[in-house]
Amino acid sequence: MSRIGNKVITLPTNVEVSQEGTVVTVKGPKGTLSRDIASQISMSVEGTTVAFSRQSEDNKTKALHGTTRANVANMVEGVSNGFTKTLKLVGVGYRAAKSGSKLTLAVGYSHPVDFEEREDLTVEVPDALTIKISGISKQRVGDLAAEIRAVRSPEPYKGKGIRYEGEIVRRKEGKTGK
């Protein structure tokens, strides 16, 4: 039994869900999201709830059951509230700046690293050591955050790098002399 897949999604008042074939569309105050779901999973919308069921009991279908429900729940959350990821820069001389639609990072390389703002995402730099990425798609917000973090991921000896807010970096002890 898929515990996640069997849970129903309760829709907020201003969100509507529709299905056309295998494409699910979710409309809300922040925008519209569409996603293709697996044909083995059937979705039913009754009033303000959305339920999912599977047609067979093989392992792949069971896995898709919970995944599909979680993806649609994230779409509903995104169009009603949105998603935000916050990155922190830790290191001497590390800083972020935004000019127009371009994010510029100075993270210890001989050159600055630039990122263009994506069409459906908002990138804010409240201070030189903080980057906030927000949007309605959890996947796209996470992808951009991971891309920025990969420029200089945290290293275990001094803890320098770009990390998610609240991320704990396990520190290692350095070499010791004789």
Output the keywords:
single chain; 178 residues; alpha+beta; 3-stranded antiparallel β-sheet; 3 helices; 22% helix; 39% strand; RNA-binding; ribonucleoprotein; ribosomal protein
Describe the structure.
This protein is of the alpha+beta class and 178 residues long. The chain is 22% helix and 39% strand. It is built from three helices and 13 strands; from the N terminus they run H-E-E-E-E-E-E-H-E-E-E-E-E-E-H-E. The protein has helices spanning 3-6, 59-80, 138-151, and strands at residues 9-10, 16-20, 23-28, 31-36, 41-46, 49-54, 83-90, 95-99, 102-106, 113-116, 121-127, 130-135, 161-164. The strands form four sheets. A four-stranded antiparallel beta sheet has the order 11-12-7-13, with helices on one face. A three-stranded antiparallel beta sheet has the order 1-6-5. The protein is elongated and about 65 Å long. It starts with a helix and ends in a 14-residue tail after the last strand. The mean pLDDT is 92.
Helix-strand string: HEEEEEEHEEEEEEHE
Sheet with the most strands: spatial strand order: 11-12-7-13
Number of strands: 13
| Radius of gyration, whole Å | 21 Å
Using the alpha-carbon principal axes, give the shape.
elongated
- Amino-to-carboxy terminus distance: 58 Å
Family: Belongs to the universal ribosomal protein uL6 family.
Domain Large ribosomal subunit protein uL6 alpha-beta: 12-82, 90-164
Keywords: Ribonucleoprotein, Ribosomal protein, RNA-binding, rRNA-binding
Subunit structure: Part of the 50S ribosomal subunit.
